[in-house]
Amino acid sequence: MTARHEKTDSDRVDHSTRAAIEAPVFSVVIPAYNEVALLPRLLDSLDVARARYRGGADAVEIVVGNNGSTDATGEIARARGCVVVEVMTRAIAAARNGAARAARGEVLCFVDADSIVHEATFDEIERVMEAGRCVVGATGVRMERMSIGIAVMWALLVPMTRLLAVDTGVVFCRREDFEAIGGYREELLAGEDVDLLLRLKRLGRRRGQKFVRTDAARTITSARKFDRHGDWHFLWQTALMPLRLLRGRAGLRSFIQSYWYDDRK
Questions:
Q1: Residues 6+ away with beta carbon under 8 Å from 96
Q2: With bands split at pLDDT 50, 70 and 90, how would you rate the model's confidence at 265?
Q3: Is residue 21 one of the residues assigned to a domain?
Q4: Buried-most residue among 3, 117, 141, 246 (CB within 10 A)?
């Protein structure tokens, strides 16, 4: 993302649903690839959160970065009143950036298509942002289901997020700050979300701002990776990582491609 306000040839925007929203406060940015099964439930939860928001539902726009889907993801999003940006570069970061370029809200809210947002999401984000001390924040998450294997993974990951002061769920920041750091790094096929948080935190330190977690409106995150690969797969995938790293970038890239991009073909 080299030019913040330019549309690339691979980003095609459907503006047909934008007339009803004149000046959104929030732009919800959703990267989506073949999400026909789970996108509707996210949109249902966003409808509830928008209706609950004290600023009114029209203050929240939803922008979907349709990342080369081969199913009806784009059609579903349009039918639900979303702005749809067709992003043909197959990378989650590219889908996020493409949708963000079309967004008009003061605050960008990034959420994965397999999530369910809390009804108080926008009130909580507004409360945090109005305080002026937050450069980037996240709602945090809870799993849609739990098991012993998932709980062990959770016990390993949560301390790391607290130590690094990062998190996921609905990740939010001011659009001007997102643009100032150049958005997501599209060369990163995975980990682009953590990288963005770290760069925004560096930006915020210059003016006394920090990462803030809003624990009062946690997002529910899908367990579909565990449904597909098993509840203990995180542990053995972690154990195999040194072997992949011995193969260099090719080994790591092959794993990322199979785990994050080929999983729903």
A1: 29, 31, 65, 110, 183, 184, 192
A2: low
A3: yes
A4: 117
pTM across the whole model: 0.87
pLDDT (tens digit, 9 = 90+) per residue, 133-160?
Answer: 999 999 999 999 999 999 999 998 889 8
Hey, which bits of 70-217 come out as E strands?
Answer: 83-87, 107-110, 115-116, 134-138, 141-143, 171-174, 210-213
Whether residue 67 is contained in a domain is answered as yes
The total number of structural domains in the chain stands at: 1
202: domain CATH number is 3.90.550.10
Distance separating alpha carbons of residues 250 and 240, to the nearest angstrom: 15
Which pLDDT band holds residue 233 (cuts at 50, 70, 90)? confident
* Structural domain containing residue 52: 11-231
Sheet with 219-221, strands from edge to edge, namely 115-116, 219-221, 141-143
Q: Is residue 171 part of a domain?
A: yes
Beta-strand runs (E) in 37-101: 60-66, 83-87
